[in-house]
């Protein structure tokens, strides 16, 4: 019997070898660039729907950034004015007596306040009780809510005011029937040109100037100002100041404020009120901040509506792309990859809206600030918050559609073709 040749392992060479062990199948990994490219494909195929969905996000973000930016620009303008005018201005005014009647400052209060060492400027106005009219034929009752105040020549520098047209009261005009109108008073009387005559207290006064608005003394805007001596001569002014404006050294404002009441009216310091006009501006700024919070809430609602639009777009996209999802699942895409694809689409869609809204909000802020001659201020945190909120909305809006898409089995998805 012949021996049959065998292989090195004693195996019959005609016998086929055992098949190699099958390696476990693994899904290919998607890199970050692949994920972005895959998510962008779904957006490029539906440009109109993407534009409308991103527009909803952009409007919400633009509203939020514009509100914050315009508010910040307004505050910057207030700060700029305060820096230019100074925050060392104090206002002294009469209060009330114990019986509730209106008190009065003594005529010598201005001279007494001027003796306080840290005081740099003192000026006063006094209510004359007269009214100003454009001519002598206007009914006495039609006052236009305009007051006639006696004023000294040092008033305008003390309150940081400026003359728009004409000139201010000085030693050559404060003894004569000359008048300077505040900005609002000139507008209501519809007179802006110096040289016009105005009917005040039963006689004619010559208009010599018109003021710009005075932020720290807005009561001057709606007043007609005549010289202190002329008010006593022609309008029977009693000489009692109704408001005294005091400029003190910046480092001594609190100390001066503490002694002003006793200095202005030593006999009755309790009948004197001391205030800072800058406090009124700060209160107005607080009111604007409250309004800003309200408008930010409205912008947040608009942003939420935009997020709902993104979620609706993604749900419809999942329904329309069932065949694509089924094909990708049949070719080996995992559920995690499907989820990542749709979440990425939602993020990209929200990011487009967020960036567009940031640019739009910045342009709106800049346009409004330029039209009002304000500095343009768009806080970095507002832009970052706008984009960050859109990304958060993108994740939330795309999560449910992504999970729904990943749960589709290949046979179920392909059955929808």
Can you walk me through this structure?
This protein is an alpha+beta fold. It is built from 12 helices and 11 strands. It has helices spanning 32-44, 47-85, 109-114, 155-159, 183-189, 228-234, 253-264, 277-320, 322-330, 335-371, 380-406, 410-414; strands at 89-94, 119-127, 132-133, 147-151, 163-166, 178-181, 197-200, 203-211, 223-227, 243-248, 272-275. Strands 1, 2, 3, 4, 5, 6, 7, 8, 9, 10 and 11 form an 11-stranded mixed sheet that branches. Helix 2 packs antiparallel against helix 11.
Which terms summarize this structure?
eleven-stranded mixed β-sheet, disordered N terminus, 417 residues, 14% strand, single chain, alpha+beta
Low-confidence stretches: 1-12
What percentage of residues falls in helices of 4 or more residues?
Answer: 40-55%
Biggest β-sheet strands, sense, barrel: 11 strands, mixed
Radius of gyration: 39 Å
- Which structural class do you get from the secondary structure elements? alpha+beta
Q: Count all strands and give the number.
A: 11
Distance between the termini: 68 Å
* Strand composition percent: 5-15%
User: Please, what is the average pLDDT?
Assistant: 81
The coarse silhouette is: elongated
């Amino acid at each position: 019997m012949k021996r049959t040749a065998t292989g090195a392992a004693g195996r019959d060479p005609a016998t086929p070898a055992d098949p190699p062990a099958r390696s476990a199948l693994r899904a290919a990994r998607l890199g970050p660039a692949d994920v972005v490219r895959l998510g962008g494909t779904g957006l490029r195929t539906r440009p109109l729907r993407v534009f409308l969905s991103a527009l909803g996000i952009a409007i919400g973000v633009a509203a939020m950034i514009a509100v914050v930016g315009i508010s910040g620009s307004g505050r910057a303008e207030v700060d700029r004015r305060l820096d230019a005018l100074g925050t060392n201005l104090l206002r002294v005014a009469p209060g009330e007596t114990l019986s509730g009647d209106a008190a009065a400052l003594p005529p010598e209060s201005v001279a007494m306040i001027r003796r306080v060492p840290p005081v740099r400027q003192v000026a006063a106005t006094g209510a004359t009780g007269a009214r100003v009219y454009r001519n002598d034929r206007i009914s006495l009752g039609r006052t236009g809510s305009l007051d006639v105040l006696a004023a000294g020549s040092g008033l305008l520098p003390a309150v940081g005011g400026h003359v728009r047209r004409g000139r201010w009261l000085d030693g050559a005009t404060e003894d004569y029937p000359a008048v300077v109108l505040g900005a609002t008073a000139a507008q209501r009387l519809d007179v802006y040109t110096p040289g016009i005559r105005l009917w005040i207290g039963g006689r004619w006064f010559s208009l010599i100037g018109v003021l710009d608005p005075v932020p720290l003394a807005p009561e001057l805007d709606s007043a007609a100002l005549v010289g202190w001596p002329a008010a006593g001569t022609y309008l029977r002014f009693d000489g009692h100041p109704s408001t005294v404006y005091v400029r003190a050294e910046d480092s001594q404002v609190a100390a001066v404020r503490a002694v002003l009441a006793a200095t202005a009216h030593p006999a009755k310091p309790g009948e004197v009120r001391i205030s800072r006009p800058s406090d009124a501006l700060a209160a107005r700024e607080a009111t604007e901040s409250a309004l800003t919070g309200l408008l930010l809430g409205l912008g947040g609602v608009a942003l939420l509506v935009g997020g709902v639009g993104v979620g609706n777009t993604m749900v419809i996209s999942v329904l329309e792309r069932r065949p694509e999802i089924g094909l990708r699942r049949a070719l080996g895409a995992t559920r995690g990859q499907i989820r990542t694809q749709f979440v990425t689409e939602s993020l990209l869609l929200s990011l487009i809206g967020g960036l567009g809204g940031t640019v739009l909000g910045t342009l709106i802020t800049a346009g409004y600030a330029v039209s009002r001659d304000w500095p343009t201020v768009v806080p970095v945190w507002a832009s970052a918050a706008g984009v960050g909120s859109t990304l958060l909305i993108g994740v939330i809006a795309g999560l449910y559609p992504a999970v729904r898409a990943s749960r589709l089995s290949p046979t179920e998805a392909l059955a929808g073709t």
